[in-house]
C-alpha cells in the first residue's frame, strides 16, 4: 500500500492492541503526513492499509470535554449547558472522505447515490456581480453527481461531494463505522483547546479553505483555492485532523432542531433517527463558500440545517469509529 504514497510523504505507523492476544482485536493505521499544498496534491486519496485495517486513515482521539456551542456566534449556537460535556474516546477520519475512498465503496457495492437517482444536484454557480437575487447562485444541474462534476470525473484526492446524508451513512456503514454526532464533530474541531470556538485563522494565518472577498461574486483567493481544495492542504489541528473547518461542510448524525436550547430534551447524545418525518440534519464546519460577509459559519460551534436528501457542491463528510 505504501506505493500509493507518492513523493516524500512520510508515514507514521500506529498499532493499538487490545489485550495480549492480538488475534482478538487489532487496529492499525498509517497516518499520511499532509498539511501543505505540495503534500496534498501528491496524495492518492486512499490512505494506507485501505481495505486491510478497520481504522485505515483514522486518528485516535482521546476522551475529553467541551463547552458545546458558543456565546459569541449566531443565536442557534448559544450553549444550553452551563457545564462542559464529556466525549468518549473514538477514532476519526484524518481527512474528509475522498473521491478515491468513495469510489472504492461504489466499486465494491454498486451503490447508486441519491443525486444519480434524482437526475442531478444543486450546484454553486458564481455570479459576475452582486446584483442577483438571494440564493440564485444555486442551480439544479442535470447529471451532476459525485462522479460527474463539470463534466469530468473529479480528482481522487478531493473531498467527495454531491452526497446526501443517506449516501454518507451508507458509506460509513459499509466500513463498520458511523457519522459523528454534532457534539462529536464539534469536539473534533475544538476539544484540544480552552478557546470557546475555533475559526479559519490562527495568529493571523489562514488555516482553512474558505472564501475571502465578497460572496458570491468576488473571491480574492488569499488562501489559494477559489474552489474546492484536495484534502489536507492546510495544517492539521492539534488532534491531527485536516479541514475540520472549511473546504466542505460535514454531515453529522444529529437532526437539526433549531437552537441548542430546544434540542433533545436536554440530552445532546440522543441524536439518532430513523424516521422519514425528519427532513433536516445538522452540518458542521463551513465550506469554501463561507465568507466574512455571508454565512460566517467557518467555525467549530457553527451549525446549519441541511435537507437530508439534497446533494450539493459544498457538503461532504468524515466518518468515526466509536470504541
Ligand atoms: Ca478559498
Ligand atoms: Ca470540512
The CATH architecture name reads Alpha-Beta Complex
Number of H/I helices: 5
CATH homologous superfamily descriptor: paralog of FGE (formylglycine-generating enzyme)
Bound molecules: calcium ion
Outline type:
globular
TL;DR of this structure?
With 323 residues, the chain is an alpha+beta fold. It has five helices and 15 strands. It is globular and about 45 Å long.
Characterization of the model:
With 323 residues, the chain is α+β, with helices and mostly antiparallel strands. The chain has a single domain, classed as Alpha-Beta Complex (paralog of FGE (formylglycine-generating enzyme)). Helices cover 13% and strands 20% of the residues. It contains five helices and 15 strands. It has helices at residues 37-42, 99-109, 114-118, 165-174, 182-190, and strands at residues 11-17, 26-32, 58-61, 64-66, 85-87, 90-93, 120-124, 138-142, 201-202, 205-206, 249-255, 280-284, 303-307, 315-316, 320-322. Strands 13-12-11-14 form a four-stranded mixed beta sheet. Strands 3-6-15 form a three-stranded antiparallel beta sheet, with no helix packed on it. It has a two-stranded antiparallel sheet with strand order 1-2. A hairpin with an 8-residue loop joins strand 1 and strand 2 (26-32). Mean pLDDT is 88; it is low at 1-25 and 264-274. One calcium ion (CA) binds next to loops.
Amino acid at each position: 500500500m505504501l506505493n500509493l504514497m507518492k513523493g516524500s510523504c512520510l508515514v507514521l505507523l500506529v498499532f493499538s492492541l487490545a489485550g495480549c492476544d492480538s488475534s482478538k482485536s487489532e487496529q492499525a493505521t498509517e497516518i499520511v503526513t499532509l498539511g501543505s499544498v505540495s503534500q496534498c496534491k501528491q496524495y492518492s486519496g486512499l490512505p494506507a492499509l485501505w481495505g486491510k485495517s478497520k481504522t485505515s486513515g483514522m486518528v485516535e482521539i482521546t476522551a475529553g470535554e467541551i463547552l458545546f456551542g458558543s456565546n459569541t456566534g449566531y443565536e442557534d449556537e448559544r450553549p444550553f449547558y452551563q457545564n462542559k460535556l464529556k466525549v468518549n474516546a473514538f477514532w476519526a477520519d484524518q481527512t474528509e472522505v475522498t473521491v478515491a475512498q468513495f469510489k472504492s465503496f461504489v466499486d465494491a457495492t454498486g451503490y447508486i447515490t441519491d443525486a444519480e437517482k434524482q437526475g442531478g444536484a444543486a450546484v454553486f454557480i458564481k455570479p459576475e456581480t452582486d446584483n442577483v437575487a438571494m440564493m440564485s447562485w444555486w442551480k439544479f444541474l442535470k447529471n451532476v453527481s459525485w462522479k460527474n462534476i463539470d463534466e469530468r470525473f473529479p480528482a481522487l484526492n478531493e473531498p467527495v461531494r454531491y452526497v446526501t446524508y443517506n449516501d454518507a451513512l451508507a458509506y460509513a456503514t459499509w466500513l463498520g463505522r458511523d457519522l459523528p454526532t454534532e457534539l462529536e464533530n464539534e469536539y473534533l474541531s475544538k476539544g484540544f483547546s480552552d478557546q470557546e470556538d475555533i475559526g479559519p485563522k490562527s495568529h493571523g494565518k489562514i488555516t482553512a479553505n474558505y472564501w475571502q472577498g465578497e460572496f458570491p461574486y468576488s473571491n480574492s483567493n488569499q488562501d489559494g483555492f477559489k474552489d474546492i481544495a484536495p484534502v489536507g492542504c492546510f495544517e492539521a489541528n492539534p488532534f491531527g485532523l485536516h479541514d475540520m473547518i472549511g473546504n466542505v461542510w460535514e454531515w453529522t448524525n444529529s437532526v437539526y432542531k433549531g437552537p441548542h436550547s430546544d434540542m433533545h430534551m436536554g440530552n445532546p447524545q440522543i441524536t439518532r433517527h430513523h424516521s422519514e418525518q425528519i427532513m433536516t440534519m445538522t452540518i458542521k464546519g463551513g465550506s469554501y463558500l463561507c465568507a466574512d460577509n455571508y454565512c460566517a459559519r467557518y467555525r467549530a460551534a457553527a451549525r446549519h440545517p441541511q435537507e437530508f436528501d439534497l446533494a450539493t457542491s459544498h457538503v461532504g463528510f468524515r466518518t468515526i469509529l466509536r470504541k
